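look at this:
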Amino acid sequence: MWGRVAAAMVAVLLAVSPAAADEIGNRIEAARTAYQKTDFARTARELEAALVQLQQRLGSGLAEYMPAAPSGWQADKPEIQGLGAVGGGLSVVRAYTKGDASLNASVILDSPAVEAAAALLGNPAATAAQPKLRRVKAGGEDALMRWDGQARSGEISIVLSNRVLLQIEGDNIANGDLLMEAAKGWNVAGIRKLIGL
């Protein structure tokens, strides 16, 4: 897991501006120096600061590839959050609203949630056993769609290379077609390139 996060960090370092990369690199170098002096508290502080900066850079990059707001909907600013407390990874979430209806788009990277979704997507028997869950194609990608017409809610989940989970969740929406249209808005090629898939 750490290897994948480190690889993503290196990819982000290569994609960010030289000034930002230098700031992150300086923090990593400061952590290395502190570690060699057995100043573990400073090592941890510097590494945590570098990780937060890298996650912000990576999250901002991922936010660029999220679906645009459907016509007539309002889109909130994406929220970026490290997932170290729940097993690692990174999430970027963006909310869209129109009256009482809401959509939430989320991209989750290198998290146990991705592994769980990939296991479900890879097990046709498990999906067949759930009547409101079906396999679909969304933007050319294999996906799972759950739709509850009575509750007027559902979600579409796409897994990329067992590392990235793309989800669109909807509440108080008329039908699942809106979920499908929103899921087609992911720039999957851009996400793959940014992450190095």
In short: The chain has two domains: 2-62, 68-185. Residues 131 and 146 are 9 Å apart (CA to CA). The mean pLDDT is 83.
